[in-house]
Amino acid sequence: MGLSGVQRTLKFVKYLPDFGWDPVVLTSYPDDYYAYDETLDSEIEGKIDRVYRARKYKKSKSSLEKKPKPFPSYFKQKVGSALLRTIYLPDSKINWKAPALRKAETIFKEHEIEAIFATAPPYTDFLLAAELSKKYGVPFIADYRDVWVENPFHFHPTPIHKHKNTKMEEMVLNHARRIIVITRHHKELLVSKYPFISHIDITIIPHGYDPEDFKEHEEVKPNPDKFTITHSGLFQDDRTPKFFFKALTNFFKKNKGAKDVLEARFIGLMRKPHLKLIKKYGLEKNVNCLGYLQHSDTIRNLMESDVLWLMLNDTVRTPGKLYEYFGAKKPILACLPDGAMKQLVKEYGSAITTIPNDVEAIEEAIRSLYELWKTRNLPKPELSFTEKYNRKQLAFELSREISLTLDL
Prior knowledge:
By secondary structure, this protein is an alpha/beta fold. The chain is 41% helix and 13% strand.
């Protein structure tokens, strides 16, 4: 499947063998998804025969026979998510659990499995891993890519739904030998909610970037005659490019020549209301919507850019694209609320930050970066900082956690 959510697990599978662990993958067929990227298979060339797939429904067709489904409006996404969370616990993938258990029997017969690593969401993965762990006596590691019960974007239709989800999470955490999260904020949430969890039970392994993704694009440079600002990824939930577009319009009014040289690129699926904003603000000649691109093409566009733009309006989520921005080593314009992500961007050493909806501050940030571009003085990041998010190093940290589960 495409989009940024697959990168974490893909890179773990790619690099764990370098540290003595051979992954065997149990997953689904990528049916009914927003985007596909079959070039990612090359990342684990030679390991494809160790990928086992279980179908959610017997009559389900593979992704090769389907076109990507359209990215829904915010309203449809919110209503659809609420409906699914009303019907299914812990999530809509629960029907995959039974066929996945059957497929797991095959895996345990054909391979000597020493540890189970499960990543979520979907949280059905954790239930599956806990059950397999009990059945086969193999330690289980829970990898949280997102918060479960206390996630403000997860709708609990009734107190009963939240109570059941809490009990499920409590069972999972009680059984997991190790717990991995991507930020300190996630760690604090779990420790404060569940008294039986201590800080030493949880390890932070953040998202990252793969230097190899950038190697083939090392010679790619921005067009010196164009000031290119690029945004990569989706505008999930209630996120919007509106304030950036407003700021850009105001900037053009005060800097007439800039309209001839500035290009704002948007990589990824865009909702119709966001596309309409481009026309509303008269930005058709300056905003270039490239649509969904394969991962390699996304990296190439990052390297062709002078500045990378990030927008986040909450302190809960951790966008994977930020870490690929780190890998590109480009200046970042980050529109973020106060919190861990803003602090992280500041440590990067090559960023201007504003709050998400401050049009004047965003306009001033664009102006400042534009002036630096004209004099060829755009800032460079701290290389010692970016190296901490090297995917290979993060896979080493995971390998160490796996080894620790066997020593406990």
